[in-house]
Amino acid sequence: MIGFITRRLGTMLLTMLCLTLVVFFMVNLEPNLRKLAISQLDMRSSDEHIESWLSKNGYRDNFFVRYGRWLGVVPKQPYVDPDTGTVTPRFGYCNEPAEPHYGGILQGDFGCSTKFKTTVASKLFPALGATGILMFWVMVVMVPVSLLIGVLAGMREGTRTDRSLSVASIATTATPEYVSGVIFTVIFASWLGILNGSAASATREGVNFSNFTLPVMTMAIYGIGYIARMTRASMVEVMTQQYIRTARLKGLAFNAVVIKHALRNALIAPFTVIMLQFPWLLTGVVIVEVMFRYQGFGYTLVEAAGNNDIDLLLGCSLVSVFVVLSTQLISDVGYAYLNPRIRVS
Amino acid sequence: MELEYLGAWGVVAGVIARFWPVWICLAIVLVLSFAFKPRLGLYGQLFDTGVGIAGVVICLFWLFTAIFAQVISPFDPLAQIFVMKDALPGAIEPASGQAFLFGGDRLARDIFSRMVFGSQIVLVIAPAATLFALMVGTTLGLPAGYYGGRIDSVLSFLANLVLAFPVILLFYLLVTPGIMDTPIPYAMAGVFFLFPIIFFCTLFYTRYKHRTGLLAVQIGLTLLIGGWVYAGLVFDADPLGIISIRPNELNIFVAVVFASSPGVFRIVRGLVMDIKTRDYVAAAQTRGENPWYIMLWEVLPNARGPLIVDVCLRIGYTTILLGTLGYFGLGLAPESPDWGTAIKESSRLLRAFVHPALPPVIALMSFVLGLNLLADALREQSLKD
Question: Whose CA, among A195, A199, A329, B28, lies 20 to 30 Å from A118?
Answer without folding.
Answer: A199
